Amino acid sequence: MRKNIGDSTYAIGFAKPPQHSRFRKGCSGNPNGRPKGRLNLATILERVLQAKVAINENGVCRTVTKLELALETLVDLAVKGDLAALRLLTTLVASAVEKDIDALTNQLAAADLEVLQGVLNEAAGRRLAETYLSRHGANLIENENSK
């Protein structure tokens, strides 16, 4: 379908909406946007899991986070033989170990980078000296012989 817009023809179709239904320049497609103070799922989940709960173990009352309580319950179920809990627990442990290894690797990588940077700086200094001597070396030798 073609429509005449001004002097030229304009094809309306895929990725070419009619002129009257386009966003106007300088105006957002979502003028109100996300309301201020509205929390996303990750923030709400973190807040809920960090909430404190009082529990009574063997007559002793202690306060733990909901996350700690959930993990303790998961471990207890896995120890009792619940296969679903055991699978979930092994997945969580593997994920935690992998993150620790990644963190350790990043720390080693930073130390290795410092060593490599020192080696490269030293090599660059040698190359710079060799380049300088190759260009001006004859002049330096002549100046020393003339003294």
List the helices and strands and how they pair.
Layout: E1 2-5, E2 8-11, H1 41-49, E3 52-57, E4 60-65, H2 66-80, H3 83-146
Antiparallel strand pairs: 1-2, 3-4
Describe the structure.
By secondary structure, this protein is of the alpha+beta class. It has a domain at 99-147. 60% of the residues lie in helices and 14% in strands. The protein has 3 helices and 4 strands, in the order ββαββαα. It has helices at residues 41-49, 66-80, 83-146, and strands spanning 2-5, 8-11, 52-57, 60-65. The strands form 2 sheets. A two-stranded antiparallel ribbon has the order 1-2. A two-stranded antiparallel ribbon has the order 3-4. Helix 2 packs across helix 3. The longest helix has 64 residues, at 83-146. The mean pLDDT is 78.
Structural class: alpha+beta
Q: Helical residue percent?
A: 55-70%
| H/E topology pattern | EEHEEHH
Main beta sheet strand tally, sense and closure: 2 strands, antiparallel
Q: Report the span from N to C terminus.
A: 91 Å
Silhouette: flat
Oligomer: single chain
Record field, number of beta strands: 4
Low-confidence stretches: none
Radius of gyration: 34 Å
Number of helices: 3
Question: Averaged pLDDT, please?
Answer: 78
Strand order of the largest sheet: 1-2
In what range is the share of β-strand residues? Answer: 5-15%
